[in-house]
């Protein structure tokens, strides 16, 4: 499948500009409202999930809860998905060591079902790449098909921090799935002072289908309670900058909703 | 039992100054840290529960989630405790109509057990008075005894908004329980502009055991996302006021921890 061809966008520079971690904090939701871009995904177990309103929202599937606070709990009773205080495990290592397949499937389904009570989801992705363990990735793809939600699938796994032991099976799975693959752009690890330059440099990209993930959050005391608040604020300030917005306006603004309609028709 | 006599405080003005709804928002936790009073209780299903650190913390038992956002979910699977999106019901009426006794008991136990993984709880109380349905109140008292946590029990049920149909059974239960009863002081419903006066007027109280419940929250965007933020900020500004703090300093500052030691010995 060539998605851009089916969309009539071959030879264009096409951008999915994606806001991660909605529903986590009021500051994250506030940045989404303030920036005005439609696409993002919601941490359904997050306290503020019910406060997100938007046009192109997905389910940011959660299996970990990595900060001391705020923390998130599973929606289902699976013992392999929680620590002693009942929260999701705080690291991918612990998750991947313990998570039982049937408990993961039940939990991810519960998150999708709960999301459907809050908004009309268009796509799936996953917090911290929790579904990269290959047997979990199979569930992820299967649930995407079952619920007709477009799963985020990168063009390449290089540079995404995937444990090498997972790579062969993941590559095999990705080669089979009937979903478009996107070129990943992720400024998360850049120092904040390089953020504006990163966004301005997007002007130099050649044609293609790009997926840019950002974590914008308002500069508030609550937003700054997260250990990685600096990178969140840097995204917010850059994406509010008029020159960055001019650069972004030169891309075709694709939504997961439009991709979903290509794959399954309008719902 | 006369608690004040056992504490050697007979004839004194004794105050339990209690901070409600900790763990709900960053703004609520921030006010607790800023004010420096030790006593409060934590909404364990709240996203920020794991961020509360303090000397005299209780479990603010939750069975309702009344705001559009943030919302809270049960820790246990009971169907009678959740709405279609999996949150606690948004009103006491719906809760009291549907809640099954065994599901309530399981949920309240889970909240106490989870709290014990986060801090060393000293007492029990309940969000929105959710346990006032008499059969739930029996569970509340029984769990207090089982876990050796002092339950909040008011001296009188008048003016607390208890449905009249519950009153006879509640009065009978309260007359039997071996726990101290406290005189309730609650400025929540006062207009913000009367808040400072309310606190200053405490100077005129006669001797006795008083329980003053406040809902202080920092004046931040997140704090102001709650519909009742004005009453929370009014408490915060009043309790930060030097003249109010002078008035409070004339009371004996009782903690639930001290009450617990009288009832069960030091733990």
What composes the largest sheet of chain A? 8 strands, parallel
- What is the helical fraction of chain A, as a range of percent? 25-40%
Query: N- to C-terminal separation of chain A?
Result: 21 Å
DSSP strand count of chain A: 8
Structural class of chain A: alpha/beta
Structural domain count of chain A: 1
Could you state the oligomeric state of the chains shown? homodimer
Using the CA coordinates, give the radius of gyration of chain A. 18 Å
The tally of helices of chain A reads: 10
CATH class descriptor name of chain A: Alpha Beta
Per CATH, the superfamily of chain A is Glycoside hydrolase/deacetylase
CATH architecture of chain A: Alpha-Beta Barrel
Under CATH, the topology of chain A can be stated as TIM Barrel
**Helix/strand order of chain A:** HEHEEHHEHEHEHEHHEH
Shape of chain A: globular
Percent range for β-strand residues of chain A: 5-15%
Given as residue ranges, the uncertain stretches of chain A (5+ residues, pLDDT < 50) are none
Biggest interface in this structure? A-B, 33 and 33 residues
Summarize model confidence as the mean pLDDT of chain A: 96
InterPro entries (chains A, B): Glyco_hydro/deAcase_b/a-brl, YdjC-like
Protein name (chains A, B): ChbG/HpnK family deacetylase
GO molecular function (chains A, B): hydrolase activity; metal ion binding
Pfam families (chains A, B): YdjC
């Amino acid at each position: 499948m060539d998605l851009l061809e089916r969309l009539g966008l071959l030879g264009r520079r096409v951008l999915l500009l994606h806001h991660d971690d909605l529903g986590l904090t009021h500051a994250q939701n506030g940045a989404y409202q303030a920036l005005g871009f439609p696409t993002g995904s919601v941490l359904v177990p997050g306290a503020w999930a019910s406060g997100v309103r938007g046009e192109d929202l997905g389910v940011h599937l959660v299996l970990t809860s990595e900060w001391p606070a705020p923390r998130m709990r599973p929606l289902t009773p699976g013992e392999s998905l929680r620590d002693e205080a009942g929260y999701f495990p705080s690291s991918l290592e612990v998750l991947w060591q313990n998570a039982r397949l049937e408990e993961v499937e039940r939990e991810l389904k519960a998150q999708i079902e709960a999301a459907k009570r809050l908004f009309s989801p268009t796509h799936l992705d996953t917090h911290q790449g929790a579904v990269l363990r290959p047997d979990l990735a199979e569930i992820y793809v299967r649930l995407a098909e079952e619920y007709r939600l477009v799963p985020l699938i990168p063009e390449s796994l290089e540079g995404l921090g995937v444990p090498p032991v997972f790579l062969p099976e993941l590559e095999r799975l990705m080669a089979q799935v009937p979903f478009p693959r996107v070129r990943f752009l992720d400024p998360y690890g850049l120092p904040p002072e390089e953020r504006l330059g990163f966004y301005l440099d997007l002007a130099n990209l050649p044609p293609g289908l790009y997926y840019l993930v950002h974590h914008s959050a308002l500069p508030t005391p609550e937003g700054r309670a997260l250990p990685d608040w600096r990178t969140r604020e840097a995204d917010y300030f850059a994406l509010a900058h008029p020159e960055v917005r001019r650069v972004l306006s030169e891309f075709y603004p694709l939504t997961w909703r439009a991709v979903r309609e290509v794959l399954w028709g309008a719902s």
